[in-house]
Every structure is written in C-alpha cells, then in structure tokens.
Amino acid sequence: MKTSKQSILRLFQYRDFLIRLKNINTVNVFSDNLAKDIGTTSIQVRKDFSLFRLSGNKKAGYKVSNLLKQLDELLGKNKKQKVVIVGAGNIGKALMQYDGFYKEGLEIAALFDYDRRKYNHKNNPPVLPIEDLFKFVSSNNVKIGIIAVPCKAAQQVLDLMISAGIKGAMNFAPIPLKSPKNFYINNINLRVELESVVYYTQM
Amino acid sequence: MKTSKQSILRLFQYRDFLIRLKNINTVNVFSDNLAKDIGTTSIQVRKDFSLFRLSGNKKAGYKVSNLLKQLDELLGKNKKQKVVIVGAGNIGKALMQYDGFYKEGLEIAALFDYDRRKYNHKNNPPVLPIEDLFKFVSSNNVKIGIIAVPCKAAQQVLDLMISAGIKGAMNFAPIPLKSPKNFYINNINLRVELESVVYYTQM
DNA sequence: TAGATTGTTAATCGATTAACAATC
DNA sequence: TAGATTGTTAATCGATTAACAATC
Description:
By secondary structure, chain A is an alpha/beta fold. Chain A has helices spanning about 5-25, 30-40, 40-50, 65-75, 90-95, 135-140, 150-165, 190-200, and strands at about 30, 60-65, 80-85, 105-115, 125-130, 145, 170, 185.
C-alpha cells in the first residue's frame, strides 16, 4: 500500500517537470504548480510526497534542485542502466533513436534481430544477430530488455532474455507473455491504446 | 461507475483472445480461459461481462463467435475509423506500418509533416504537408489523431487537430498537453514507461 | 444427482479526495 | 497578524475479490 504503481509513475512525471523548471532557473515550486503540469491536484502531489517522505516548506513550497536530488535518489536515476532491444524494425529503430533516453541514464547498448540483412556492427548502438544476445547480456550485465518483434517470436525472445539474466522488460508485441513472478513486464499494446481512444471519442 | 476505464481495456483484450480462438475454430470458452490469457481472474472476467450485460451459459461457458459479435457491437468495431498521424519520424512510420490496425477497422488515412522532404503523395497512406491537415480532416470526417512530433510542436499540433474537428488523440510527445474537457487524450510516454521498468527491476 | 460453471450481491482493498491542524 | 501553504488523518470513491445462489 505504501508505494503504489500510480504514485511511482507520477513521481517520474514530477521529475520531468522539475528538470524543465531547473533549466529555466526556477528555484521554488508549489504543489499546485506540479499538479497543474501533470494534470492532477495539489492534494495528490502532497500525498505522493508524503508517502515517500519528501518534504517542503510551509509557505515557501519546495526547492526545485533539492526535490530533484531526492527524486533522483528515490527513483534510482543516479545509476546508468543498459538496455537491449530485440527487433530492429520500425518500433525498435524508433526507440533506438528516441531522444532523452540517454540523458535519463538509459543507454541502448545494442539491438538484436533475426534478419542477417539488418546486422550492423559499426552502428552505435550495434545491430547484432540474436544468437549473440545471451553472451552480450551476461557479459555486459544488462538487466532491462525491450521486445519489439512480431507476436509469434515474442515469447521465445522473452524466454531467451530471462535465461540470459534480464530482470524486466517492456513488451510491444500485442500478446500476453508468460514470465516468472520476480520478473517485471510492462506490456505496451499500441493497438489497444488506439482502440480505446476510438471508443471514448464515440461515447 | 458502471463503465470503468480498466474494464473497457480488458474487453479489448478479451476480444483479441477471442479472435485468436476463432481462427483455430474453437467454439466454446470459459471465463477461466479468458482470465488466464490476459492475466486476470475468472471472477474479474465475469464481473466485466456482468457490467456490460454479456452473458453465457452455466456449465457451457461462452460461445466464441457470439461473444465476439457482442463485443464488436459494444466496442464500436463495426464501423471503420479513419486516423491521421502527425509526424513522419520513426514513431509515425512505425505506426503507419503497424500490422493489425487495418483489420481492426482502423485506417491510417494520412501522415502529415512539417518537413517538405518527407512529402509523398503517392505513398499509401500519403505523407502530406501540415498545411493540408485542416482541410483533409474536415473533408474526410476524421475523428482520431496521433501526435508523433517533438515536444515543442505537440501543443500546436493538438490545437490544430482540435480546430479541424478531431475528437480524440494518442500523444507520444512526453509532455502534458492542454485540451478541452470533451476531448479524449491518451498520453503514451515511452520514456516514463521504460523508467518504471527500471525502477521495478531494481527493487 | 453431483460437479462445474455462471452471474450477482456483499466485502475488501487500494487509491483519491476532503478536512483540517500546523506553521511560515 | 492574516493569508497561504504544507502534511497528515479521516472520508469517500472506485475497482477487485470473495461468497454464494442459480442452474445446466
């Protein structure tokens, strides 16, 4: 109960806003400013902070740099994290080039694919054959994977990741995958997300 | 209360599974099968169905084709929906080529971009100049948009969409956007999603 | 019938919101 | 001081889970 999934997600969003504030040299911020930005209420903001023992000053709000430092610590943003992507198709490439991963401590260490024509050892990050995944992951101590392959290959890729020592994954294949309890998987089903937009606009 | 966001999302997932079942000619399905597939409980499945007046047969479960037909009706899957994408970068192109949109009644009618070099009227869907968005959307009666542009252009694109008559959007720009109350916006922040995977694997 | 399954009502759980005391 | 803000405790709300009746 103490730490809910949703408040963690909001902490990341607050952090985003704080970074923007810091860039324009803002020193203080009120819970109400934070709330407005991410589209919630100031009560929710203070509640979230309360859960994680983040405190400000009555009347003066929160110090941007101080709060940011605490959030970085709390969210483990001080360590660099290596990530591998399996599937060098459109989604894989989009993520490879996604701005802002790197400065957030997320390093796309390599892409992997089944298709030989896509291999490119010289690229940064390199595009490697799927056979190299196991060795790469274990020798580079990678803990995070992204699955961007077609449905029929997804479970196989996940199993390979797990056996290689990966502990959490983001999955774009629109099919539920089986994983052990201690493995964290974040399913992103873009089709369902789009379908739900359609549904809500029709109501 | 009657219709919760989460149960709607699950209805789409049940539907996915039912389509797969239909393809392998399965006739009947139990709530427990549905639950296993999407990773929930049979109680939840029956509760969801109960909310939407979907019923089966005691002992015999649900008829796949019948249930599918009812879900299609409920979720408005019988009408084709046109969608426009603004931003012909990696994410835009990934979505353009995303398998399965079309057969789900989602038609990517056109992409729009600010960059002249990306224009391609001959492509299917065509890649058009952003100046054409307003006219295209209103004359084709498009109700759904996808925002796949950098942060600094996102709000401007959304405003343009709204003025052209779009009613709901999926937004990939990692920044909160302002929209009127009757406009539905689904924010997909891939960086935050990935960061949360990192967070949970570290615990 | 006995066993298995649906479907609804009630109970629980968790997250959000409200109320308000503390204090700068 | 008065006004504005934080931070915690209590109340509400919504979603999930449990219990159980109905019935094939």
